[in-house]
Amino acid sequence: MPLNIVQRVLPGWGVTYGPPGDGPFPAIMLLHGSEGAWAGWSHRDAMLFAAHGFLAFPYGYSSGGNAWNAGHIVDYPLDRSVEALRVLRGFQYVSERVGLYGLSRGAEHALLLASLMARDKVEGAPDAIAAHSPPDVVCGAFDARGFRDVGDPGWQAWDVSQRAWTWQNSHEGLLPTTPIEIERYPGPLFLSHGTQDRMWSIEMTKRLEKHLRENGGHPEVHYYEGEDHIPSSAGQNKHYELLLGFFLKHL
């Protein structure tokens, strides 16, 4: 029985998922959240994209960790994501257009990367971006080894002495609470958020939307009534219906 989805190795970077055949296919690079690269959720999402005609690359950017521990997002060099996009664009099975999809910390990653590439006129920016449950500001570093639920002894939002991101070997402009200047990005943008998200406030996406529209942007924005940070099955179905429609239109 022939496979409807096949794996292909992106040399030096990891595995991709896509339709059988030589393509070329529109591509999407996926950015996981604080669950880390080992959790596998981005691979699940990549399979879904592949089933609808995309070549999907779940890029694991967190450091450390293993199958039982998420690892950390500390001093991650965003320049490496620029290189990952460049390599993906050059992959023999990929067409001319490449999108970027991130959720939670991955959504922050996607918006921050796009804003910095636009600000500094770095070539190879994504042709379309989708961000689910994004923050509107830079957040602090995350280390799963120290994570505690809200209310547990020792809980804190993040370690204020550590930073999540670097750009061109610097933390400049990347300190926690710094607004993400996504209005600099000129391409199509999809934002979504559950109205009952208990981890990342929906107000962050509302502020992003307001700021973008005030600066002449036209984002596609969806608020999922009653959904938490991880949507229910019905919520997931609605989200992916809209998400796939966005990428099919722009890639």
UniProtKB/TrEMBL annotation:
A Gene Ontology biological process term: acyl-CoA metabolic process
Domain Peptidase S9 prolyl oligopeptidase catalytic: 140-251
Domain of life the protein comes from: Bacteria
Matching Gene3D superfamilies: alpha/beta hydrolase (3.40.50.1820)
Gene Ontology molecular function, alphabetical: fatty acyl-CoA hydrolase activity; serine-type peptidase activity
Name of the molecule in the record: Peptidase S9 prolyl oligopeptidase catalytic domain-containing protein
